[in-house]
């Protein structure tokens, strides 16, 4: 998408009551059970202490990890520090080089997407496939109602009014769960089906998760050819479904089409602006670049389209914290073909407070850890029923192992610098140079080249940024990116610690 081109469609019967009167005691041959006794206070206190320890153990593990690592570097000799520095610089050079290569490879998909938009505009938004030949589409908007009760009606109206797709070939499905009845909202949603025949509102019984909601929907016989999954905070671009369906029609081997997610509340504060640029870097640079380099794409949870028969067989695993990542890796293991369509745009909300951001990313980090442990074998095995190339296996290894390992690379480098600042803070430019380069001249080149790779990646991100990411946001992101990496690496290690103690609490992202 050209950064100077604005999108044409920006987001913005009751039963009677009765009473039964019993005048005499009911006959019984057994004595009534005694009333339940009060719980033992000591056991209650022990349970609270146990919960407290379980809740804070991951924090303690991460805290002592940083303290212990920093202390180690404080007592190391200069020769040992030099070795550590060289190893970190060499590993960082590989990661930076891979990242910038992905960025350069993403430029062609971005150019192709921009050209496709220009052609569609010139033809008055007429697409290659006639309307009567389009696939039947189920759009599934998944909601956890207490958390999203303030935004769900707005999203329903948007989907009904703004999405451009033949009405006889699309259904808007609101699939939600709630632990308690929320009225009059639920009745209002049900009543809307009388006015919109292509709207279906489904309250999933006994559901406790997004995976439960989706798996229940997959049991319904809807007759759809394609199923699209959206979180409740999304505004799909009006032509979003058309771009995805055109990809399925153009290539019968395509099983999954993943669109580009854009943060539209980027201007709310510094945090949302950082997340907005990060999403541009992930969805417009990293994903399409990796797909070109490693020959596989990924379903990312929302704004993803599946062939219906594939998804109904595949289902979601409710035991995983991030069922979307698990489903993406299972699909990769089964040989399903996923592609990234940059014109299939959807707008979403970023967390506006750091606590909400922290909870969301911790869940993502632990979910990635779970999925990486479960599916790491994909990088080592080559199935007989379909071909998984050496390039794909290396890409999976890089994504599941090196990405998780990079959290320790970043944090260990941070601890190394902290140890030096505490014990040997440089007083002259010569000492500063020695702090940075040590006695290995080659580490100078590794350091400089890594910085160049970072700048190149950010420049390409700037070229493909969304209309909500301003020049100022890109500059601020570039300056603060090293610190942002440290925060993200800390969250990653926190996710590992939670997985070690089998932490399983799920905190939904707040929606406002």
Automatic annotation (TrEMBL):
InterPro entries: Glyco_trans_2-like, Glycosyltr_2/OpgH_subfam, Nucleotide-diphossugar_trans. It is a multi-pass membrane protein. It is found in: Membrane. Keywords: Glycosyltransferase, Membrane, Transferase, Transmembrane, Transmembrane helix. Residues 227-459 form the Glycosyltransferase 2-like domain. The chain crosses the membrane at residues 405-422, 442-462, 474-497. GO terms for molecular function: glycosyltransferase activity. It comes from the Eukaryota. SUPFAM superfamilies: Nucleotide-diphospho-sugar transferases. PANTHER family: CELLULOSE SYNTHASE CATALYTIC SUBUNIT A [UDP-FORMING]. This is Glycosyltransferase family 2 protein. It comes from Aulographum hederae CBS 113979.
